[in-house]
Structures are given as structure tokens and as C-alpha cells.
Amino acid sequence: MDTAQVREAKETMDVLFEMSKLLDTGLDRETLAICVSLCESGVNPEALAAVVKELRRESRAVSER
Predict the structure, then answer these.
(1) Is the dihedral of CA 54, 47, 17, 33 positive or negative?
(2) Which of 18, 20, 52, 56 could form a disulfide with 25 if both were Cys (CB 3.0 to 4.6 A apart)?
(3) Alpha-carbon distance 30 to 41, whole Å?
(4) At the top level of its lineage, which domain of life is listed (predicted)?
């Protein structure tokens, strides 16, 4: 990637992260980047969202024990 592409990619992730915070998704930058990458690779976004929700439920259940 050239410098302009890197800058544009960073700006895009910055905007996506701001949107993520506004929507109170609880995703950090790294997790958001992984989700974006998975979607770009063809993963169904609704299925991915369902997996994230389920992982959060499981995490809460484990931490409550």
C-alpha cells in the first residue's frame, strides 16, 4: 500500500471506530478491525453480530460464577 492508501484506511477505521463508540458497541479498535476484515472476506455481518452477542453472553455467564 502506498502512503495515500494507508492514510485513507486509517481515516476509514477512525470513522468506523467513532461510529462504533456512538452506537455503544463496546468493540475496541482491534476487534472492530477484525470484524471489518471478516465482513470484507465475505462473512455474513448478521451472523457475525450474533456470534459477538453470544460470546458476550457466555463471558458474562462465566464471570458471574
Answers:
(1) positive
(2) 20
(3) 16
(4) Eukaryota
Total Cβ atoms within 10 A of residue 51: 14
Element of type H or E holding 9: helix 3-22
In terms of pTM, does the model score above 0.85?
A: no
* Inter-residue contact 10 to 30 (CB < 8 Å): no
pLDDT tens across the length of the chain (65 residues):
789 999 999 999 999 999 999 999 999 999 999 999 999 999 999 999 999 999 999 999 999 88
C-alpha cell at 47: 451472523
